[in-house]
What we know:
The protein has helices at residues 12-24, 37-47, 63-73, 90-99, 113-126; strands at 3-8, 28-34, 51-55, 81-86, 104-107. The chain has 127 residues and is an alpha/beta fold. The chain has a single domain, classed as Rossmann fold (3-Layer(aba) Sandwich). α4 links the parallel β4 (81-86) and β5. α2 (37-47) runs parallel beside α3. The mean pLDDT is 93. Bound molecules: magnesium ion (MG). Magnesium ion binds next to loops. The site of magnesium ion has 6 residues, from loops.
Amino acid sequence: MPVRVLIVDDQEPFRAVARTVVELTDGFEVVGESENGEDSVSSAHELSPDLVLMDVNLPGISGLEATRRILADHVNGKSVVVLVLSTYEAAEYGPQAEEVGAAGFIPKSEFSPERLVEAWSAASVGS
Ligand SMILES: [Mg+2]
Protein backbone atom coordinates (compact mmCIF):
# COMPACT_ATOMS: atom_id res chain seq x y z
CA MET A 1 0.00 0.00 0.00
CA PRO A 2 1.34 3.42 -0.88
CA VAL A 3 2.22 5.95 1.79
CA ARG A 4 -0.69 8.43 1.80
CA VAL A 5 0.49 12.04 1.95
CA LEU A 6 -1.24 15.28 2.96
CA ILE A 7 0.49 18.44 1.70
CA VAL A 8 0.14 21.63 3.76
CA ASP A 9 1.39 24.93 2.35
CA ASP A 10 -0.20 28.36 1.85
CA GLN A 11 1.62 28.90 -1.45
CA GLU A 12 0.12 27.15 -4.44
CA PRO A 13 3.43 27.02 -6.38
CA PHE A 14 5.11 25.09 -3.57
CA ARG A 15 2.14 22.76 -3.20
CA ALA A 16 2.52 22.01 -6.91
CA VAL A 17 6.24 21.28 -6.43
CA ALA A 18 5.56 19.09 -3.41
CA ARG A 19 2.82 17.23 -5.27
CA THR A 20 5.19 16.56 -8.17
CA VAL A 21 7.92 15.30 -5.83
CA VAL A 22 5.49 12.97 -4.04
CA GLU A 23 4.09 11.67 -7.33
CA LEU A 24 7.60 11.02 -8.62
CA THR A 25 8.44 9.01 -5.51
CA ASP A 26 7.79 5.30 -5.77
CA GLY A 27 5.29 4.09 -3.18
CA PHE A 28 3.88 7.51 -2.21
CA GLU A 29 0.64 9.19 -3.22
CA VAL A 30 -1.02 12.55 -2.48
CA VAL A 31 -4.38 12.23 -0.75
CA GLY A 32 -5.01 15.90 -0.01
CA GLU A 33 -3.78 19.47 0.20
CA SER A 34 -4.41 22.19 2.78
CA GLU A 35 -3.51 25.86 2.58
CA ASN A 36 -3.64 26.68 6.27
CA GLY A 37 -3.05 25.11 9.65
CA GLU A 38 -6.65 24.90 10.85
CA ASP A 39 -7.69 23.17 7.63
CA SER A 40 -4.74 20.77 7.88
CA VAL A 41 -5.91 19.62 11.31
CA SER A 42 -9.41 18.78 10.03
CA SER A 43 -8.04 17.28 6.80
CA ALA A 44 -5.67 15.06 8.79
CA HIS A 45 -8.60 14.00 10.95
CA GLU A 46 -10.79 13.18 7.93
CA LEU A 47 -8.19 11.65 5.62
CA SER A 48 -5.95 9.84 8.14
CA PRO A 49 -2.81 10.32 6.04
CA ASP A 50 0.31 8.30 6.86
CA LEU A 51 2.47 11.36 6.32
CA VAL A 52 1.90 15.12 6.54
CA LEU A 53 4.28 17.53 4.79
CA MET A 54 3.88 20.67 6.90
CA ASP A 55 4.96 24.20 6.05
CA VAL A 56 5.97 26.34 9.07
CA ASN A 57 4.81 29.80 8.01
CA LEU A 58 1.07 29.70 7.45
CA PRO A 59 -1.72 32.23 7.92
CA GLY A 60 -3.55 31.64 11.22
CA ILE A 61 -1.98 28.97 13.41
CA SER A 62 1.61 28.08 12.50
CA GLY A 63 2.67 24.78 11.03
CA LEU A 64 4.29 23.94 14.36
CA GLU A 65 1.01 24.45 16.24
CA ALA A 66 -0.86 22.50 13.54
CA THR A 67 1.69 19.68 13.92
CA ARG A 68 1.13 19.61 17.67
CA ARG A 69 -2.67 19.42 17.17
CA ILE A 70 -2.49 16.73 14.47
CA LEU A 71 -0.25 14.52 16.61
CA ALA A 72 -2.46 15.08 19.69
CA ASP A 73 -5.53 14.12 17.64
CA HIS A 74 -3.88 10.85 16.59
CA VAL A 75 -2.78 9.74 20.04
CA ASN A 76 -5.36 6.99 20.27
CA GLY A 77 -5.72 6.31 16.58
CA LYS A 78 -3.61 5.39 13.62
CA SER A 79 -0.10 6.77 13.74
CA VAL A 80 0.85 9.71 11.58
CA VAL A 81 4.27 11.08 10.70
CA VAL A 82 4.75 14.83 10.26
CA LEU A 83 7.70 16.24 8.34
CA VAL A 84 8.16 19.98 8.64
CA LEU A 85 9.27 21.90 5.58
CA SER A 86 10.42 25.50 5.43
CA THR A 87 12.20 27.98 3.23
CA TYR A 88 14.38 28.57 6.29
CA GLU A 89 17.34 26.39 7.20
CA ALA A 90 17.13 23.50 9.64
CA ALA A 91 18.87 25.51 12.38
CA GLU A 92 15.96 27.95 12.40
CA TYR A 93 13.05 25.57 12.93
CA GLY A 94 14.54 22.09 13.27
CA PRO A 95 14.68 22.13 17.09
CA GLN A 96 11.14 23.57 17.36
CA ALA A 97 9.81 21.01 14.89
CA GLU A 98 11.29 18.25 17.02
CA GLU A 99 9.82 19.81 20.15
CA VAL A 100 6.25 19.59 18.81
CA GLY A 101 6.81 15.97 17.77
CA ALA A 102 7.64 16.26 14.08
CA ALA A 103 9.71 13.36 12.76
CA GLY A 104 12.01 15.57 10.76
CA PHE A 105 12.75 18.87 9.10
CA ILE A 106 13.56 19.43 5.43
CA PRO A 107 14.50 22.78 3.88
CA LYS A 108 12.20 23.33 0.88
CA SER A 109 15.19 23.85 -1.42
CA GLU A 110 16.33 20.30 -0.62
CA PHE A 111 12.96 18.58 -0.96
CA SER A 112 13.25 15.69 -3.44
CA PRO A 113 12.13 12.07 -3.80
CA GLU A 114 15.44 11.02 -2.19
CA ARG A 115 14.95 13.27 0.85
CA LEU A 116 11.34 12.18 1.15
CA VAL A 117 12.22 8.47 1.17
CA GLU A 118 15.14 9.07 3.54
CA ALA A 119 13.00 11.06 6.02
CA TRP A 120 10.15 8.55 5.83
CA SER A 121 12.51 5.61 6.46
CA ALA A 122 14.14 7.39 9.41
CA ALA A 123 10.70 8.15 10.89
CA SER A 124 9.47 4.58 10.41
CA VAL A 125 12.53 3.09 12.07
CA GLY A 126 12.13 5.48 14.98
CA SER A 127 8.48 4.66 15.62
MG1 LIG B 1 4.17 29.32 3.94
